[in-house]
Design goal:
The chain is mostly helical. It is built from 11 helices and no strands. It is elongated and about 75 Å long. The termini are far apart. InterPro entries: BP-dependent_transpt_permease, MetI-like, MetI-like_sf, OppC_N.
Length: about 325
């Protein structure tokens, strides 16, 4: 004889539990799969990067340079504009570890304060090309057809412009060299590669099964693009953006050296190089220190980008 049912135990009533069925369950599964795939990719990449000594060393160098730009007073108490002509072109010493320049200013303080505009221009340019190039590449790859044709032709026009020559011409026409104008010119000439990378990634991703499933369940185009497709295109974009960050630091110094970039009394590594090149044989430290900082920063970003690419690509592991 079976035991009687305890009347004190609550029984489930219809409607107490809402179980997703049909399209809702499939949509939840698709979102969960996408988030899990992206989380796993970045988690695996981070575990590999933490074991990569090249990435760690490059990251430490970038962190030190970034701290110079953000908190220069932590590195030096000297005012870069406090100059004494009696101390001009002094060799490195305990009082002035980088020596002094032709105006008798502390050269180390110039190097520290010169990090900010160089990194700021690179940061603004990198963020802008990610937004502009990423959006145009996403639209071209997702919609295809006439939209892709128009955007691709515009990309071809800008891609055909010589980077250095185009920057010189634009900055000469603007006749106003500052952080914003330099960043704007670098964005105008540098967004095309990001757009091509995103376009190719979107074309490959939009035909995947989970994207087609989300489309069949009624997902809007904006949801497909930003929730399902774009997360899968961020990896190659981040790799290229890291490398381009260093490239923009180098571009600022190059344009300043050619006379169309930042101008004194602003401080930047490019100004330090351009204003002291003629003293290299007599006082090589005036050129060696800013060049070393510039090369180290650019190289660090390139090495970080290469390490990030290897970590995010399972085929290279």
């Amino acid at each position: 004889m079976s035991d009687p049912i305890d009347s004190n135990v609550p029984t489930a009533q219809p409607g107490d539990l809402k179980t997703p069925v049909g399209g809702e369950a499939a949509a939840m599964a698709s979102n969960s799969l996408t988030k899990e795939r992206n989380a796993s990719l970045w988690a695996d990449a981070w575990r590999q990067l933490r074991r990569n000594p090249v990435f760690i060393i490059a990251g430490i160098y970038v962190a030190l340079v970034t701290s110079m730009a953000l908190f220069p007073t932590l590195w030096t108490s000297q005012d870069p504009r406090a100059c004494n002509v009696e101390n001009f072109r002094q060799s490195p010493s305990a009082e002035h570890i980088f020596g002094t320049n032709t105006q008798g200013c502390d050269y180390f303080s110039h190097a520290v304060y010169g990090a900010r505009p160089s990194l700021l221009i690179a940061l603004l340019s990198t963020v802008a090309i990610i937004v502009l190039g990423g959006l145009l590449g996403l639209l071209a790859g997702f919609y295809g057809g006439a939209v892709d044709g128009i955007i691709s032709r515009v990309m071809d026009v800008f891609f055909s412009l010589p980077f250095l020559l185009g920057a010189i011409v634009f900055l000469t026409l603007i006749k106003k060299q500052n952080v914003l104008t330099l960043s704007l010119v670098l964005v105008v000439l540098g967004w095309t590669t990001i757009a091509r990378i995103i376009r190719g990634s979107v074309i490959s991703a939009k035909s995947l099964d989970y994207v087609q499933a989300a489309r069949a369940l009624g997902a809007t185009n904006s949801r497909l693009m930003f929730r399902h497709i774009l997360p899968n295109a961020t990896a190659p974009m981040m790799v290229y953006a890291t490398i381009m960050f260093g490239g923009f630091v180098s571009a600022e110094a190059t344009l300043t050296y050619l006379g169309v970039g930042l101008q004194a009394p602003a401080q930047s590594w490019g100004i330090m190089i351009s204003s002291n090149e003629q003293y290299f044989l007599l006082h090589p430290y005036l050129l060696a220190f800013p060049c070393a900082l510039l090369v180290g920063t650019v190289l660090s970003f390139i090495l970080m980008g290469d390490a990030l690419r290897d970590a995010l690509d399972p085929k290279l592991r």
